[in-house]
Amino acid sequence: MHLRVAGLTIHVACRERDLRVAPNRAAESFLVDPGAADVEIDVTAGNLEGQRFGECLFDSAGPWRLHRDDDGFLFCFFSSTLTTSPYKIARFNHDFSIGRIILHRPFFAGAATIDPLEYPLDELLVISLLGRGKGVEIHGCGVLANGSTGYLFAGQSGAGKTTIARLWLDDPGSVVLSDDRVILRDDADGLWMYGTPWHGDEPLASPRRARLAALFFLRQHHRHELLPVARADGVARLFAASFPPFHDARGLEFTLEFLDRVAARVPCFELGFVPDSSVLEIVRQRS
């Protein structure tokens, strides 16, 4: 399968005859026809019992860890049902252009279909690619309005991203790219915002993109209130809502530099609002 997220194409090929590869439902709309890929991944199955791994670069304190692997990287994924081995590992070269996923065969026995990129690997891979000078993923709701205008509503959980996404769903001609995670990239023809397969409470995940016109930091409030945000404050707030490659010093440096460019080029506001469609007109007037 060929999966394209934010203009980055990932080609996954499985050589195991007894394994049927398929994406999750949200990622289906991100499938593209075969062609040139930014990442080539080969999928195999085996027994991962007793595997040894190199230096641990990042421990999520949850289901995955990142290790150094010779001149590349190794992601290990764990399940509470397996106590002695990972259920999946993913090896990548230094620039994440070539990878190999090995599935723990006993864990997947009997599965009708398998998604080798099952979350969080798909997102971790894209974040790693973006950190190499390609863009930044943001915790936010992205909207394509009027067929051409992009609005980003950034904020942590509970800030109101899904609430404002539902308001835009009822707006004729508008498309919600995602209610939880979007990707920003600076192409030759402008600053663009892309939808991702990683949605929030609502299954809103569009492969489309929009030229970013304005950025709003959400705050639930008792009335509509719009306040300008200075550039330095905007960078800090964006970084707090971003998903940088924390294990990669150069990736972190690029992320900060990129977010500074975003805050310099795009009007930034703090948006306090109540769940009423009248807030949409306030947003339009500021772009």
Write the layout of secondary structure elements.
Layout: E1 2-5, E2 8-14, E3 31-32, E4 39-46, E5 56-59, E6 64-69, E7 72-77, E8 88-92, E9 98-104, H1 105-108, H2 121-130, E10 136-145, E11 149-154, H3 161-169, E12 175-178, E13 181-187, E14 190-195, E15 209-220, E16 225-228, H4 231-240, H5 249-265, E17 268-273, H6 278-285
Parallel strand pairs: 2-4, 4-9, 11-15, 15-17
Antiparallel strand pairs: 1-2, 1-3, 5-6, 6-7, 7-8, 8-9, 10-11, 10-12, 10-13, 13-14, 14-15, 16-17
Tell me about this structure:
A hairpin with a 5-residue loop joins strand 8 and strand 9 (98-104). It is built from six helices and 17 strands. It has 287 residues and is of the alpha+beta class.
Labels describing this entry:
287 residues; alpha+beta; nine-stranded mixed β-sheet; five-stranded mixed beta barrel; 6 helices; globular
Short description:
With 287 residues, the protein is α+β, with helices and mostly antiparallel strands. The protein has six helices and 17 strands. Helix 4 crosses helix 5.
- Residue stretches low in confidence (pLDDT < 50, at least 5 long) are none
- Total count of helical runs of at least 4 residues: 6
The portion of residues forming beta strands comes to 35-45%
Distance between the termini: 38 Å
Rg measurement, Å: 20 Å
**What structural class do helix, strand and pairing data support?**
alpha+beta
Helix fraction, binned, reads: 10-25%
Q: What average pLDDT do the residues reach? A: 94
The main pleated sheet reads as: 9 strands, mixed
* Helix-strand string: EEEEEEEEEHHEEHEEEEEHHEH
The strand line-up of the biggest sheet is: 3-1-2-4-9-8-7-6-5
Question: What would you call the shape?
Answer: globular
- DSSP strand tally: 17
